[in-house]
Design a protein that fits this description.
alpha+beta, four-stranded antiparallel sheet, globular
Length: 108
């Protein structure tokens, strides 16, 4: 198989959080939840890069295919929705952490 076409695992696990990218189901301490396509892409990106800060620009370019950063409220809303599905207290996130002025980090 060509090295460029690396197979991407359809199931990702980080601690108690498990993401099935085919069914778009995330399961963990808060049960199982169905994700939208964008939520699934976003969580998969976070889980594939644990403990790394991913900038808002990188997230917008990768998930929404735009470099426009004038209004990133869409990103904030999607992160909030993910937090509601995997964080015991979404208002005090321990998994998807905001890195002020830069972006987000997934604590793996």
């Amino acid at each position: 198989m060509n090295a460029i076409f690396k197979p991407v695992p359809h199931k990702l696990t980080a601690g108690v959080v498990e993401l099935d990218q085919v069914s778009r189901l995330v399961s963990g301490a808060l049960g199982r939840h169905h994700l939208t396509p964008k939520q699934c892409e976003l969580l998969a990106l976070f889980m594939q890069h644990p403990n790394q800060v991913i900038s808002r620009r990188e997230l917008m370019e990768h998930i929404w295919k735009t470099g426009y950063l004038g209004d990133t409220r869409t990103l904030d809303v999607h992160v909030r929705w993910l937090r509601e599905k995997i964080e015991p207290d979404p208002s005090v996130p321990a998994r998807i952490v905001t890195v002020r002025g830069i972006g987000y980090r997934f604590e793996g």
